[in-house]
Amino acid sequence: MARPAAKKLETSTTLLEAAKKVLRQSGYAGLSTRDVAAAAGVPLSQIHYHFGSKQGLLLALFEYLNGQLLDRQDALYGDKSLSIAEQWDKACDYLDEDIGSGYVRVLQELSAAGWSDPEVAKVVRDAIKGWIDLIAEVARRAERELGGLGPFSAEEVAALVGSAFIGSESHYLLGLERRGVPVRQALRRFGDLIRIAESKSSKR
Amino acid sequence: MARPAAKKLETSTTLLEAAKKVLRQSGYAGLSTRDVAAAAGVPLSQIHYHFGSKQGLLLALFEYLNGQLLDRQDALYGDKSLSIAEQWDKACDYLDEDIGSGYVRVLQELSAAGWSDPEVAKVVRDAIKGWIDLIAEVARRAERELGGLGPFSAEEVAALVGSAFIGSESHYLLGLERRGVPVRQALRRFGDLIRIAESKSSKR
DNA sequence: GCAATTTTCGGTCGATCGACCGATTTATCA
DNA sequence: TGATAAATCGGTCGATCGACCGAAAATTGC
Prior knowledge:
The structure is a homodimer. Chain A is mainly alpha-helical. Chain A folds into two domains: 1-52, Homeodomain-like (Arc Repressor Mutant, subunit A), CATH 1.10.10.60; 63-203, Orthogonal Bundle (Tetracycline Repressor, domain 2), CATH 1.10.357. Chain A has helices spanning 9-26, 33-40, 45-51, 54-78, 84-101, 103-114, 118-146, 154-174, 183-203. The first copy, chain A, starts with 8 loop residues before the first helix and ends with a helix. Chains A and B meet through α6, α7, α8 and α9 of A and α6, α7, α8 and α9 of B. The structure holds a DNA duplex.
């Protein structure tokens, strides 16, 4: 019954890191508690002791990873000295970084797991909703500074940008980029569009 | 011998339809050969007889569904009487239709399965690559008729549009739309942008 | 009508899964 | 130090998985 919070940093954190590693390598379908325990070098029963269940481990993993990213996000969107185009470029840098670290794979796997598991869906959805809200804020700033967003509302721009990034991740994981589809290049090009709009509005 | 002659449907087709149904309801993680066989009303061993393995069933399922969609796609992109904005609207209609029929769920589940399974990835990737190539053609047409695509190449536009649609599907499956993120509404709004560009170019 | 082939069927195998248990060790604090 | 709780450990349970088998039935070709 005892379900302590991560007090002894060692084992529970080791398990989360191991779960991340296994999820990167084998995906959600190939993720077994035994694999995670083996990767962590601890007995199987430790998973249920620390996280209660396999699902508990996954939810804890997502919050663990998301916590690592929150500071980064706040730093990006809180820095008012950056132009919107510079913020966009930075977001693209983050995507490259997250692909390299394997976080994208984990996020997409958990997202897919959410399609079947309402509890997982809630956690992932809330996180992505948070990101989209941040994007909407930037879009509202762009609306003010650049003079409108064409036919789009700020919320619609945020939904589109969020979809484009998530879809790009999916395409990348499928290997489309290596097959000639310029996924990330196209995302970065969008920064040029913002730059054009910014130079127009500054000349006004 | 009063056997129902009307229900002489091929067993393999029955199995594919059953697999589609199970995949819609339980996702890839919850897809077992026994569930499929039960949903189809045939013995388990029929799956391995007709498709060799579980993976063989999945690959056949994707090609089965994709074949149903190919005619529709060709009809959309082959109809030169439609304006680009009308083509966009129709694509949005198709998305609604595919969400309703459950095809989106199946496609996304198979796509996710491809992240771990190279053979599944190849089939899904080739199909999506085909769609993106079609979009690129439309983008080239837009480039000619509307006078350029801003900083984007046709291939980049295709990559962005493809990502946006796939990402929208993922967001929809997560339930983000019901939480106030205007996913499909934003996609449709993009048609307005095309209409603006078309009216400008016609006035030229 | 008969032989060859295709298809259907029930049953079972070995492997793996998540979960759980009791016993043992380690850490915490009076 | 001794008592109490937290944490670790090996082992095992029932369930489910994909795959496979040989026999039976249906279909096809001659």
